[in-house]
Amino acid sequence: MSDFHPGFLLNAIVYAALGIALFCLAFAIVDKLTPYHLWQEIVEEKNLALAILIGFMSLGMCVIIAAAVH
Description:
By secondary structure, this protein is mainly alpha-helical. It has 3 helices and no strands. It has a domain at 22-69. Helix content is 80%, strand content 0%. The chain is elongated, with a radius of gyration of 16 Å. The two termini are 20 Å apart.
């Protein structure tokens, strides 16, 4: 195993921040494309099916973003 280099930590922080920013942007786009407000539908109306769908969609977007950023 090679020695620790501070650049590795900086790279991890930059890639993590980039991935989170891309995920937030993608989620905002999906929220705008749906005919209803996702947060209101999940929290106030307690739509469990939509919550599960959005959860799996979020995981899918995160896997794609992680693969693209890595």
